[in-house]
Amino acid sequence: MHRRGVGAGAIAKKKLAEAKYKERGTVLAEDQIVQMSKQLETFKSNLEEFASKHKQEIRKNSQFRVQFQEMCATIGVDPLASGKGFWSEMLGVGDFYYELGVQIIEVCLALKHRNGGLITLDELHQRVLKGRGKYAQDVSQDDLVRAIKKLKVMGNGFGMIPVGGSYLVQSVPAELNMDHTVVLQLAE
Prior knowledge:
Number of helices: 8
Strand content: 5-15%
Strand order of the largest sheet: 1-3-2
Structural class: mainly alpha
Radius of gyration: 27 Å
Helix content: 55-70%
Oligomer: single chain
């Protein structure tokens, strides 16, 4: 008859094996953390180099800015997350979108008495461009969308409503139910 490992000796042996596995797991985890830290440092320095090399292009060219934003989004970096920090200092993109947000608010408030707080993205784009002047940085509709998303932190006053193939910008704090949305889509 074959004897199984039961008793105090078997329990002690099992605990010793578990302790060794746990110790080895901790060593492996620490090695992985060190490797990940090195990779992140390399990535950060390469991204900083890219950003500083193409700073002017990012600030002036709206298509390039969109591509840069998409690249950052795919790797989980949000250059608009804060007005303070690396991206704001390096590129000034945080400031750009905050200034654009202020211009959007000004246009929406100026027209609120005429449109009730709803304006098409196209009209908003035209009016913001007109207000910026011909020597200012080019602004795309994607830039407007990103700035409006940043305005959401101020509450539910600003938002985007999809209507057909376009968007309406809502600048008044009001809940639109499905009936309102259907009416807007039909009116479009």
